[in-house]
């Protein structure tokens, strides 16, 4: 962004045009799409009021805006878990699928089950890096934690997701009583 321009409106307009779509996608992944525009509007209102606090490099400004949006979502207590969106997409799949398509649907179902077993903090760590494309330092700032703390959270989240993907039957067993003679590791700490 060009901060040499003394016109704050021009600086804000450039910031808005460069980041609006990313912020909208960020919000839509976490809240009902009908409410995402409100989250983005409130985020930009905060940016306008605190324009002097917005970092000059565009990638840093983008991360700063994600942090503001994260706080808006938390303060509104309306955020949705990412797994709800994934479950809805799976439910929209056609009933009749071929063998290869069935394997793909089964893999997505396993992923959804594994994803549902992650805590909201673990889900957030993965989405900030995988979907939003933030660095560890930027994601740490979004969550208000240090880069090493975020890296540790991300490492643990990835390990748990891999472990849950390797044991999909364990995830199913948590949702219904086990069959006689079947053992599960429900008491295993994550």
From TrEMBL:
DNA-binding as UniProt keyword: yes
SUPFAM superfamilies linked: Sigma2 domain of RNA polymerase sigma factors, Sigma3 and sigma4 domains of RNA polymerase sigma factors
Tree of life domain: Bacteria
Protein name as annotated: RNA polymerase sigma-70 factor (ECF subfamily)
Keyword ATP-binding: no
PANTHER family attached to this UniProt entry: RNA POLYMERASE ECF-TYPE SIGMA FACTO, RNA POLYMERASE SIGMA FACTOR HI_1459-RELATED
Family: Belongs to the sigma-70 factor family. ECF subfamily.
Gene3D superfamilies on file: 1.10.1740.10, Winged helix-like DNA-binding domain superfamily/Winged helix DNA-binding domain
The species this protein was found in: Pseudosporangium ferrugineum
Sorted UniProt keywords: DNA-binding, Sigma factor, Transcription, Transcription regulation
GO molecular function, one term: sigma factor activity
One Pfam family linked to the record: Sigma70_r4_2
Domain (RNA polymerase sigma factor 70 region 4 type): residue spans on this chain: 110-161
Ranges for domain RNA polymerase sigma-70 region: 15-82
GO annotation (BP), single: DNA-templated transcription initiation
Transmembrane regions listed in the UniProt entry: none
